Amino acid sequence: MRFVLNIDYPPEKMELSRRRIAAWQKFRYVDRVPVQYCVVPRYFAPLFNLRYRDFFKDAETHYYWQLQFAKYRFEHIPEDVCTSPAVWVCPYFDNVIPPSGHGGEISWSGDETPRALPVIHSIAEMERFEVARPDTGLRGTAIAWWGQMKEFATQTKVTFNGQPGRVDTGFAPGGLSPHMIAVDLVGEDFYWWILEYPRLCHRFLQKITQGEIASEEHARRLQGQPLTGDSFALAEDSAQIMSAQQFKEFCVPYSRALFERFGRLDRGVHMCGDSAHLHQVLKEDLQMNMFPYFGYRVPPKVAAANLGGVSRLTGNLNPMLLKDGSFEQVKQAARECIEAIAPCGGLMLADGANICPGTPLRSFQAVMTAAEEYGMGGGRLPAELPA
Fold first, then answer.
1. Which CATH number characterizes residue 104's domain?
2. Is 381 inside any structural domain?
3. 385 assigned to some structural domain
4. C-alpha torsion sign, points 24, 30, 31, 37
5. Could you report the per-residue pLDDT of 59-113, keeping only the tens digit for each?
6. CA–CA distance from 47 to each of 159, 220, 299 (Å)?
7. Is 384 a domain residue?
8. pLDDT in tens, 281-325
9. Which domain holds residue 20?
10. Helix/strand/coil for 128
């Protein structure tokens, strides 16, 4: 075999985590709130003395390091991410695939994440913007690398505690809202353009939305999936500084167009920062029922009051506290989150959002200790019946 990966992880833990996630989806718990982090390749690279830019060298390098990162994660980070004997590998370019697919320029540096640079500097350039094809920029790269990764998976032997496992592959062409892509392409000027040139900005957002729909459908065709879907999620990080009225006008129609096609049942919106003033719009206008890795600046009690029992809430521990806080400080923050949100059902304890490189393993253990000690927020919500 070309790749061999032996993972020390017992099937009993997988099954219990699987049951916890299944119960969480129904706003119930098995024995405690599940725990699952937004921990991505940039966290693992320093642990392996890997310059982050080298992670993107080619498809084989990309594939190999994701196997190593998965092994480390399963074996060292206590959470409920491993629910079957499988390792998930995909082309991963942080958040720059969508802007690149629309013609954005990407900046690469040694140990920093790639980032999109504005390429539209005038209203005239925005008016000339054309709907993107679904295989341009890094989207084309992701498609090509996915094809290679499928072949690598057939040449990989994975075992979990000596039992056969597998590698699953796929690729996601999007994940960012049309408004967030617009800000990537234009930069901060877009925030005042929507005030001065609203009609032209709406047309721009419509074109981005058309491109995103075409890209998602193209990816689904390639992967043999239905062109419509029941579960879909978007990031709206660039919107939390907007008023509720601006959000309703310039974000909701375009994200809703994607949700109506691809998220008929489950609609997730990720938003960093202080999003409390937008919760009602998220709930009522976008019909959001998943709030993944929401920003730590939203107090847990506020999240519970605004969205508890309606949206599954994943979060929202301060990533800097996880990186720099003591065991007891992290445990206390996790306890406060559990006690505020868990009684509503649908809490997954996590960061809010993105685990920082350098976060010590003791912080992950502190969160798990809190989950095990405080379980379901005082046990005020019925647990899922044992299987």
1. 3.20.20.210
2. no
3. no
4. negative
5. 999 999 999 999 999 999 999 999 999 999 999 999 999 999 999 999 998 888 9
6. 23, 34, 32
7. no
8. 999 999 999 999 999 999 999 999 999 999 999 999 999 999 999
9. 3-374
10. helix
Share of the chain above pLDDT 70, in %: 97
pLDDT-flagged residues of the chain (< 70): 377-387
3-class DSSP state for residue 262? Answer: helix
Query: Residue 27 has which token pair?
Result: 């706003």
The amino acid present at 329, given as its one-letter code, is: Q
Q: What gap in Å lies between CA 134 and CA 218, rounded to an integer?
A: 6
The CA–CA distances, whole Å, from 172 to 3, 78, 89 equal 24, 26, 11
Q: How far apart are CA 136 and CA 284, in angstroms?
A: 35
Looking at the structure of the chain, the number of domains it has is 1
Task: Please tell me what DSSP assigns to residue 35.
Answer: B
Q: Residue 115 in 3-state DSSP?
A: strand
Of residues 24, 113, 21, 17, the one with CA closest to residue 74: 17
Buried b / exposed e along 120-157 (16+ C-beta atoms within 10 A): beebeebeebeebebbebbbebbbebbebbeebbeebe
